[in-house]
Design brief:
Layout: E1 3-8, H1 12-23, E2 28-34, H2 37-46, E3 51-54, H3 63-73, E4 79-83, H4 87-97, E5 101-104, H5 109-120, H6 128-138, H7 155-165, H8 170-177, H9 181-195, H10 200-213
Parallel strand pairs: 1-2, 1-3, 3-4, 4-5
Helix pairs in contact: 2-3, 7-9, 7-10, 8-9
């Protein structure tokens, strides 16, 4: 019997590419696609899947929140996060939310397939670099890897920073995240404080530079 997979990504071409890759395997089958977190949860309510592959950058509810929602819906359903964003910033957040694996979109297709099969087998998939980082932290050698300013941000603050880096203004971010303008302004103020920035221009410059790196 083939393992059924749900793909969640707001880019149709990405979904199509992943579906082609997975459907080419004799033991895998993509039986659902969704562009938003809402569509994903609706699909999960209607059908049973063995695995969800989700991007982090979704409109409205973020990928991190989607992972939490999926875990609340079915704690045994494995979620593989596949994203363009740097794993050193996002992977641990995704794992804390309930994901069981994280793969960069730039990775070779062999690694994506390997991650899918690892999760379907009940295991966790992380890159060698991320495993080493988490091991150093577990044995208390945190001094080897200083905390980056980005790491102290909340998931929502990180999402706001990403959108600022895309050039969105406060009102646009409010609409994208479905949060009040006042809430977005509070996140912007907190970002400046945590990142040691004084002005909106400095925040915008930092966000744009960081987005280019990610």
């Amino acid at each position: 019997m083939k393992s059924s997979i749900l793909i969640v990504d707001d880019h149709p071409m990405v979904r199509h590419g992943l579906a082609q890759l997975l459907n080419h395997e004799a033991d895998l089958e993509v039986r659902g696609e969704a562009a938003t977190a809402g569509e994903a949860m609706e699909a999960l309510r209607k059908s049973r899947f063995d695995l969800v592959i989700a991007d982090l950058s979704l409109s409205g509810v973020s990928g991190i929140e989607l992972v939490r929602n999926i875990r609340a819906h079915d704690a045994n359903l494995p979620v593989l996060v596949i994203s363009m964003h740097d794993e050193t910033v996002y992977a641990e957040r995704a794992l804390r939310a309930g994901a069981r694996g994280y793969v960069m979109k730039q990775e070779a297709t062999e690694k994506v397939l390997s991650a899918v099969r690892r999760l379907l087998a009940g295991d966790v998939y992380l890159s060698d670099a991320l495993q080493a980082k988490m091991l150093r932290r577990a044995v208390g050698r945190r001094g080897d890897a200083p905390v980056l300013p980005i790491e102290v941000l909340s998931d929502r603050e990180l999402e706001v920073l990403r959108l600022i880096g895309r050039g969105l203004g406060t009102r646009q971010i409010s609409e994208e995240l479905r949060r009040s303008i006042k809430t977005v302004e509070a996140h912007r103020a907190s970002l400046k404080d945590k990142l040691g920035l004084k002005t909106a221009a400095e925040l915008a410059h930092f966000a744009a530079k960081w987005a280019d790196q990610g």
